[in-house]
Amino acid sequence: MAPSNQAQKSVRFEDDVDAEKPGDLLASIKKYYASSKFSDLTVHTMDQELKVHWLVVCGQSEYFSRLYEGEGLESGMNEICLKEDEPRAIEAMFHFMYGYEYDSSGSDQGRESPMLFAVKVYQVADKYQVPQLKDRAREKFKSIVETCWQTDDFPVAIEEAYKRSIKEDRGLRDILVKTAKGNIKELDASEDFRLALEETTGFAADLVHAMARDEVRKPATMLRCNTCYVEYHWKTTPLGRWGVRFV
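Structure for BTB domain-containing protein, as requested:
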């Protein structure tokens, strides 16, 4: 049986809910989430129950708004099951809705890689149509990737981001491609990165296209062979130099 709202109270919040000022609506909303007071919706995840408020979640999620206007309003729905999703990411989504800044260690369940956690939160935000959370997850992901691309998490993040997003959603994919392109020499020495390059559908093609666009924009140096006097365009690529015969 999933833990009750006591698990919700045990979550480590980064903000102080006791610092409420009279008339402070945001602080009151945070307090009601932490205490479950006035909650009218129970969300069942894989390992816990979260007590939330229809008013708060519907105002930020088109998914929950449609759910309430459909089944919820007619049947008096007060419970939903989200057990197919990553529980920590679902937890983070509701933290965000109530004004908390989530992180990957915000639960008693233990800490997770911030880079990979951002991918999961981004996917959940996309699925449940919480655009502000999706933007926030993307910002966090970008900041982490730009400073931690040399870690073992980067190749895994490539696989996860491409697996959890559709081709048209460039939010995380463009960040990964840009970072890989800018550090390709160092990454090429990583066996894990090369494996991600081979096995992640779409990533290699995106990377090649990005590198090709850069080469088109880059001016070429004109050289002439001192022996045969044939002229060449000479360019430098991230992986070395190549010459193209000028006809």
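DSSP finds twelve helices and six strands in the chain.
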